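Slide 14.
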Amino acid sequence: MAEPGDEATSTSASAVGWLVLTGVFLAELAALAGLFVWGLDASGWLVGLGAAALAAVAWGLFAAPKARFPHPVARLLVKLLVFGSAVLGLWVAGHTGWAVALAVLALAVHALALLPGVRAVDPRGF
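Slide 15: predicted structure.
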């Protein structure tokens, strides 16, 4: 028999889960922006667009929830490569504060995404 507060608890857990997943998505967009900033600083807007596009394609193939080639090791490697490159690129481009912020954001939201309540919202993995 369900308790009267169970539905409210389930709804709030679901809301927190979606909030965390939104944070994961925003971190992914920030990583693409970081790669664009690095390329822009290194060689111009074309390199920036190319770096961001290459990362987006790799992400879609291996790291996205509905990746074409889903494999846990490939997912982890692509995520480390994209976020690591974005953080390093921002650092090299002289945006150390943004580099640290991206690293902290990415680590925090991905750690939160491993919580059972968040994984229950979308169990495909992050």
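Speaker note: The chain has a mean pLDDT of 90.
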